[in-house]
Amino acid sequence: MSLDRAAREKLVRALAASMIEHAEELTSLDQAIGDGDHGLNMKRGFEAVLATLPGLADKSLPEMLKSIGMTLVMKVGGASGPLVGTFFMELGKALPEAPARADLVAATDQAINAVKTRGRSEAGQKTLLDVLVPVQGVLAGGGDAGAIAAEAAQAADRTTPMLATRGRASFLGERSIGHMDPGSRSASLLISAAVAALEFEAIS
Amino acid sequence: MSNSSSGNVGIVIVSHSSKIAEGAADMVRQMVGNAVPLAWTGGDTDGGLGTNVAGILEAIEAAWSSAGVAILVDLGGAETNSEMAVEMLAEDRRARVVVCNAPVVEGAVIAATESSGGSSLAAVKRSAEEFYA
């Protein structure tokens, strides 16, 4: 997969649009079991990313991803800044300029491990890892764009009955059960936006 | 944000609320005067409730001491953002900054009191963490 400048810009705009368009939904999910700022935080972060265009898309794919990550770290303003930002930065560090699927599999694995370290968390605690980990499994297993997007959506849904043991929602104990994790929802939206923008089938 | 130069361990207060951060810093000042480098930060980059890495980096810089800096945080995001900020420091400084696992107000006052006696970074951290353990 080699992304030209137009494709890189398309990817950035798709990621940002998914967060900006769903800001209210994410905030309302976060109001149920968190501090109610997730939508606004992610919107602020991705608006800041958009503001770095067009120069952002002039960078190579790895440099662009690192830059997106750094902007999110600096601008999001909640724990999701360092968590999602770390994911992008580590992807940028691990990916070559024209990644094959095996490179994506290895890079996403590395990025997920960095998120685990940053959050001192594992899958099963009702966090974005509950989307990232199973989606990475589908990617590693050879799943196509449809399978990846479907798993992202289903994985976010599966956080609804989970008990939160990490993050602000964990303060609620059993009352966190029955609400979708906002961080899982935003991760799912970003993944769906990315595979759609990348015309992922082209990656072999 | 306020500062004072000395060889004592610096204290940084990070809260989601700038009012809490500032108020905790006032309480520290009342206890130790200007004997300890002190800085605070609170709020996201738009001024709402939250924490931000740039503000934390500035606070670490403002409270910098060759003896190191102890950071006191309130809730999860403050801790995660503080750890991120520490990681972004130059390598020679990184090892001299710690995030304390202690209540933000009480921990800041205790840490500053310990620091004002000339204690090491490790002792400052231990005091803050042990008081309520």
From TrEMBL, chain A:
GO annotation, cellular component aspect: cytosol
A Pfam family the protein falls into: Dak2
Recorded GO MF terms: glycerone kinase activity
GO biological process, one term: glycerol catabolic process
This protein's UniProt keywords: Kinase, Transferase
Keyword Transferase: yes
PROSITE patterns: DHAL (PS51480)
InterPro entries referenced in this protein's UniProt entry, alphabetically: DhaK_L_YcgS, DhaL_dom, DhaL_dom_sf, Dihydroxyacetone_Kinase
UniProt-listed Gene3D superfamilies: 1.25.40.340
Keyword Kinase in record: yes
Domain DhaL: 6-196
SMART domains cross-referenced by the UniProt entry: Dak2
PANTHER family xrefs: TRIOKINASE/FMN CYCLASE, TRIOKINASE_FMN CYCLASE
Name of the protein this chain belongs to: Dihydroxyacetone kinase
Organismal lineage: Bacteria, Pseudomonadati, Pseudomonadota, Alphaproteobacteria, Hyphomicrobiales
TrEMBL record, chain B:
The organism's place on the tree of life at top rank: Bacteria
EC identifiers of the protein: 2.7.1.121
Signal peptide annotation: none
GO biological process: glycerol catabolic process; phosphoenolpyruvate-dependent sugar phosphotransferase system
Gene Ontology CC terms, in alphabetical order: membrane
A Pfam family per the record: EIIA-man
PROSITE patterns: PTS_EIIA_TYPE_4 (PS51096)
Catalytic activity: dihydroxyacetone + phosphoenolpyruvate = dihydroxyacetone phosphate + pyruvate
Residues of the PTS EIIA type-4 domain: 8-133
Gene Ontology MF term list: phosphoenolpyruvate-glycerone phosphotransferase activity
Transferase is among the record's keywords: yes
Subunit field text: Homodimer. The dihydroxyacetone kinase complex is composed of a homodimer of DhaM, a homodimer of DhaK and the subunit DhaL.
Record function comment: Component of the dihydroxyacetone kinase complex, which is responsible for the phosphoenolpyruvate (PEP)-dependent phosphorylation of dihydroxyacetone. DhaM serves as the phosphoryl donor. Is phosphorylated by phosphoenolpyruvate in an EI- and HPr-dependent reaction, and a phosphorelay system on histidine residues finally leads to phosphoryl transfer to DhaL and dihydroxyacetone.
Name of protein: phosphoenolpyruvate--glycerone phosphotransferase
